[in-house]
Design brief:
Blueprint (H helix, E strand, L loop, with lengths): L8 E5 L3 H12 L3 E6 L12 H5 L3 E4 L5 H13 L2 E4 L3 H7 L3 H4 L7 E6 L14 H7 L3 H5 L14 H24 L4 E5 H8 L1 H8 L17 E5 L2 E6 L3 H11 L21 H13 L4 H10 L3 E4 L3 H5 L2 H5 L3 E5 L5 E5 L13 E2 L8 H7 L4 H9 L9
Parallel strand pairs: 1-2, 1-4, 2-3, 4-5, 5-6, 10-12
Antiparallel strand pairs: 7-8, 8-9, 10-11
Length: 392
């Protein structure tokens, strides 16, 4: 990875996945990150996917209930370019780490935070995770479910966290650029709820214009944006170009007899109420062919299509391999696995990045020495439980 943020110092005071994902992005762009954890570590590091969020950061567990721990945090902030946190608003204010408390003391600091629901309104202090604030309240769970299932969507873990973290990272980078012109830091903040609304834009807009959600694949709204069951599995296809793709789809599904049918002369004829009938017809065609036949035929016709992959399938997918979309890691649980790599590439850099999550307190001594603490002071901090350090 090209180190576009080399020389930028980040202090991460993050606990859950959304804030950790923002820091992960900044670190993988080359930032020097000190990860301030609770003395027992954040809960995330003990989960199977915890390694994904904290790779290549310097773990420094600090007891923030100890005044000396708070003093250490401020010593870090004195040299920091960016402070990232997703602790709740009230927690930061109690610790004196909210924007209002820090802006005059560290005028060049970028203060970046994520909350569940925002900084105002009746939910501003409520706990929020991606399942509740991103998927639930933003309408994504309801609008994405199959209405015939009579049960909510089982949402994938961390999707909202990643989206929110990436958005905050983009805001941080914009604020760093602004600082090159003004010399001043600023507050950057977002929420799981706001990012969920942003990503649910089409469904929110559609419903205001009379489109009904949730849907079912039998009544998809658009017949050629749908899933189809083949002899041996499912495929997903989509087109925005009726004139180019409609006849090709009919041919691949062995429905050539319908080419030129006056019922479907343009894209509008395949949408809304008309989509119900056309979906049934397409179902009958795709049911006669295999997944590979559908994928090969539609790809050859330049129609977007994909067979359904499981997460495990992607680890050995030749397309992912060709583009180095995975990185190898030695997990904290002692197993070597592959994790999705940073999706941003620079200047054709296709190297397979090597990542490793830090052990709890692995970098405490190193960082304390860097920030001017003597060996005697470090020993005292460790003895008193102000910090946790490995190998000391």
């Amino acid at each position: 990875m090209v180190e576009t943020l080399k020389g930028i110092k980040v202090v991460a005071f993050t606990r859950a996945a959304a804030g950790c994902c923002c820091v992960k992005m900044l670190t993988e762009f080359g930032a020097d990150t000190v990860f301030v954890e609770p003395v027992k570590g954040i809960p995330l590091r003990y989960l199977n996917f915890g390694d994904f969020y904290i790779n290549n950061q310097k773990s420094v567990p600090i007891n923030m209930r100890d005044p000396k721990g708070v003093e250490f945090m401020h010593r870090l902030l004195e040299k920091a370019d960016v402070f990232v946190s997703n602790y709740r608003n009230g927690v930061l204010k109690t610790l004196g780490l909210d924007y209002e408390s820090l802006k005059d003391k560290y005028p060049k600091l970028i203060h970046a935070t994520i909350s569940g629901y925002g900084t105002k309104g009746p939910m501003k202090d409520a706990p929020g995770f991606d399942v509740t604030a991103f998927w639930g309240r933003a309408g994504l769970s309801s609008d994405s479910m199959d209405k015939n299932a009579n049960m909510p969507l089982i949402v994938p873990q961390g999707t909202g966290d990643v989206a929110c973290g990436e958005n905050l990272a983009m805001g941080v980078i914009a604020a760093l650029f602004d600082r090159t012109r003004t010399g001043k830091g600023m507050q950057v903040y977002t929420s799981l709820y706001s990012v969920g609304l942003f990503l649910n834009n089409s469904q929110i807009i559609d419903q205001q214009l009379g489109v009904k959600y949730p849907k079912t694949r039998k009544d998809p709204g658009r017949a050629m944006k749908n899933t189809f069951r083949c002899k041996d599995g499912w495929v997903q296809t989509m087109t925005l170009n009726f004139d180019k793709d409609f006849n090709s789809i009919l041919k691949v599904a062995h429905l050539d007899n319908l080419i030129g049918d006056p019922r479907w002369k343009c894209m509008e004829d395949t949408e809304g109420e008309n989509a119900i009938e056309l979906t049934e017809i397409l179902d009958s065609g795709f049911a006669q062919i295999t997944v590979q036949e559908a994928v090969d035929g539609l790809t050859a016709a330049d129609v977007a299509v994909s067979k359904y992959f499981t997460g495990l399938d992607t680890v050995t997918d030749e397309q992912a391999e060709a583009n180095t979309y995975f990185s190898d890691v030695d997990t904290l649980k002692g197993k070597r696995i592959r994790i999705p790599a940073n999706p941003i590439k620079f200047n054709g850099d296709e190297t397979l990045d090597e990542y490793r999550a830090p052990q709890l307190g692995e970098h405490t001594v190193e960082v304390m020495k860097e920030y001017g603490y003597s060996d005697a002071e470090i020993d005292e901090y460790i003895k008193n439980g102000t910090v946790v350090a490995q190998g000391r």
